[in-house]
Backbone:
């Protein structure tokens, strides 16, 4: 039951337009913004810029293109190829 409740809560938050706009506006505003700690960028090019900055500081990194929002097979295949 707690797992299902947690899943439902996180999926609700992930699909919230208000939350997405707030995080996009305030969470990704600068390099010190709270979401930047967890999100390298809004697209691949921005994520690569972030990776290079991390590397210049002597740190290693990994990136995940998760695609939790995908709902059909074609979109999943395209995300896998990307």
Residues:
């Amino acid at each position: 039951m707690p797992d299902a409740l947690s899943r439902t809560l996180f999926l609700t938050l992930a699909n919230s337009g208000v939350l997405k706009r707030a995080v996009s506006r305030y969470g990704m505003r600068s390099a010190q913004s709270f979401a930047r700690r967890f999100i390298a960028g809004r697209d691949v090019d921005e994520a690569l810029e972030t990776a290079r900055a991390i590397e210049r500081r002597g740190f290693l990194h990994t990136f995940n293109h998760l695609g939790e929002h995908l709902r059909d097979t074609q979109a999943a295949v395209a995300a896998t190829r990307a």
